[in-house]
Amino acid sequence: MHTLKNFLIQQFNFHPQLVDFCLSAEEEVKKPFDKIDKITEYNQLKILKAMQEHNVSDVHFAATTGYGYNDLGRDTLESVYAEIFNTEDALVRPQLMSGTHALTVALFGNLRPGDEILSPVGKPYDTLEGVIGIRPMSGSLKEYGITYRQVDLLSDGLFDYENIKKAINEKTKLVTIQRSKGYSWRPTLSVNQIGELITFIKNIKPDVICMVDNCYGEFVETIEPTDVGADLVVGSLIKNPGGGLAPTGGYIVGKEKYVEQAACRLSAPGLGKEVGATLGINQLLFQGLFLAPQVVNGSVKGAIFASHIFEKLGFKIMPSSHENRHDIIQAIQLKTAENVISFCQGIQKASPVDSFVTPIPDNMPGYDCPVIMAAGAFVQGSSIELSADAPIKPPYTVFLQGGLSWHHAKIGVMMALQSLFEQGAVQF
Ligand SMILES: *Cc1c(COP(=O)(O)O)cnc(C)c1O
């Protein structure tokens, strides 16, 4: 009989009890699945409407070369992004090489010697430590005389308003707010929480630039940080908004003058947004954006499914399966290094690309311990595709994210579980 259960057992060698356990766990998360489906539908319509309003057409998929003057597709894509994010302007470019680069361009473009950056939400994403100069790095903002201050979140994940107020001074030019937990054990900020923080900051200093690192957050809610007062919002196209199809790129959306300053840093003063050939990838950027809500939906479902399963098995998880989601990341504390390695190897085995590769922990620049990364992606390093990362140190937390479809995310989680099961780490 060609049932799903038989296929899983016979073709993927799953233990029958594991299959039963997972299929009943899936039944138990119907409610959060319904919730994300409604959000996805809203975002799908928002994107459809924006594409229609801007008369997206075949001509916009043509390639430009050289300087890329009058790249209609590029300019229209930027108008569509500005519409979706409810902003004056947008910079959406393949020349933005990664999320880190997009954030770097936004920061260097808008800061001048003597300015100060404030992070009111604790330590920023790892790679930004080098950019800001928290970790000494050649070419950092610190070397250009730009200083940095940080106020940590309170132990319950809330804002430390008192110390944030004290940290804002005459030099404070830009406040950077990271929406996602990234790779730390803290709750992800909701868009509304970000809005409250921005309102608080603007009440103290109205002209400060509020920038949000939106990586992993796009289309997980019906609103984005630009809907609640953010002046600049930045992200990567090989995460949520590229929908798995964008081969490279990043975006910066927000107030016109701040986007323009970023554009002048990306290209050159005086050139700004006018240059930048798109070499034929516009269609993938449009189509990926169009599919992004659906791809984010699959990722969020995979995260919810993993959260529920591992909570049932007695592991600590963040967030839990029935909490509202604000990004696509699922953190799971797996208790031992062996469990972390097994989990990541299971995820790798479930990949459509490089399924035969066995990931192992290794030292990486910028980390104080070995790190293991599982990813078998069509686009190199794409973490909207199913992937898992973990630093090998207590409490042995693995960060799971992505999945181009819910059904792929599901079998990925099941294979990670099977890998733990074979090692004797879990029982049903
Ligand atoms: C991924 C990520 C970045 C950096 O993006 P890269 O494309 O990996 O350089 C920055 N901030 C957050 C919160 C991220 O998740």
Summarize the structure.
With 428 residues, the chain is an alpha/beta fold.
Please characterize this protein's 3D structure.
It is a single chain. The chain is an alpha/beta fold and 428 residues long. The chain folds into two domains: 4-43 and 290-422, Aspartate Aminotransferase, domain 1 (Alpha-Beta Complex); 63-279, 3-Layer(aba) Sandwich (Aspartate Aminotransferase, domain 2). The chain has twelve helices and twelve strands. The strands form two sheets. It has a seven-stranded mixed sheet, sandwiched between helices. The chain has a five-stranded antiparallel sheet with strand order 8-9-12-11-10, with helices on one face. Helix 3 (30-53) packs antiparallel against helix 10 (282-312) and helix 11 packs across helix 12. Pyridoxal-5'-phosphate (PLP) binds at residues 98-100, 125, 127, 178, 180, 182, 213, 215-216, 236.
Using brief descriptors, characterize the structure shown.
7-stranded mixed beta sheet, Aspartate Aminotransferase, domain 2, binds pyridoxal-5'-phosphate, Aspartate Aminotransferase, domain 1, 428 residues, 40% helix, 5-stranded antiparallel beta sheet, globular, alpha/beta
